[in-house]
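User: For a benchmark we're assembling, each entry needs the component sequences followed by a predicted structure for the full assembly. Here are entry 17's components. Please fill in the structure.
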Amino acid sequence: MREMVGIKERAERQISKAVIKRLPRYRRYLGDLQKKGVEKISSKDLSELIGYTASQIRQDLNNFGGFGQQGYGYSVDYLYEEIGNILGLNKTYKMVIVGYGRLGQAMANYITSHEHNFKIAGIFDVKQIIQDVEFKGAEILTCGSLANFVAKEGIDIAVITVPAEKAQIVADTVTRAGIRGIWNFTAVDLDLPEGVACEDVHVSDSLHALAYYMQDMK
Amino acid sequence: MREMVGIKERAERQISKAVIKRLPRYRRYLGDLQKKGVEKISSKDLSELIGYTASQIRQDLNNFGGFGQQGYGYSVDYLYEEIGNILGLNKTYKMVIVGYGRLGQAMANYITSHEHNFKIAGIFDVKQIIQDVEFKGAEILTCGSLANFVAKEGIDIAVITVPAEKAQIVADTVTRAGIRGIWNFTAVDLDLPEGVACEDVHVSDSLHALAYYMQDMK
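Assistant: Structure for entry 17:
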């Protein structure tokens, strides 16, 4: 029953963005179960935990070959591992953080303490940071050297935490220097060349959705 | 053509979460157009700008009564205003920030400079903050006084930026004290009573989705 769909076969299918968005959530719950020593789980129990229907979960995982065994359920370790592989978390990624205000600092702390596959190689700011010349092994540099650094160090991902009006110019700089992924925290939708992946954390959109849900509740 | 669907009528229909998630984005683009002095826009031009299909846009807005005039397009000011009303951005909300590390500080800065409908009334941390006793008019207090403050001040929204293992206890405290909305930045899905709206910013899920897209591009 444990059939793996090859990377090539997978690439030929179009997995919907909604499915991809749910995978990290599955993995997060499986990680919690692992910590509690749980070895296997049925799609029904997983469904109660995560809050998606059991059929939704089976359908999502079937996109990648299933992973379940009839009458046994899912092996927690195996599924955690395989979802990690699907997401590409079996590799490490070199990052730069561009913009070292409070948010950049928060993300630097978060990544170094929680995301061991993502290594911060450099941190960039318009201002010369005087109080910290490095952050846990990552150099802190001014933006003038950003393009060279990205190209020379073979950086995979730029985390953009600059003010909105600077976002596109930073994106242009890093994409020209060969970046493959952008994690964008600004309120701007970036204009990017093909082949560059982008994930946005638009906090303003999130807050406004919350305002909607609050009215809807009354 | 400009029919408004009443709040009551709207509440009886079920607007999908996906539509709600797109509304702040429409409003954001309309705000940019306003700043550029654009007065009207067709759904086709809006579509090219935002990246959704024109029919998607029309369909989304029809959930709320349409707002467009045949052969004229959308009035930018009017649509910006109406989407704001739908989202509940014609009101003000009183907030507390719970957790005043880097992320809490970043969110306090962001809200006070960009989100004028959301007023930070208090900021809470486990530690006594000595260097700042207040932040732009908001008191900075220790968590022991959180429940009282929320109840007494009639706080609408709690922004939770504490470590993951403290998230649920903070949520329990503020919901018991009568909060109506939670903006959750922790990696935890909170267990909340009915009638409390919640919007999660799960940065870890977002980063892992980015890792997936990066593989998918190769």
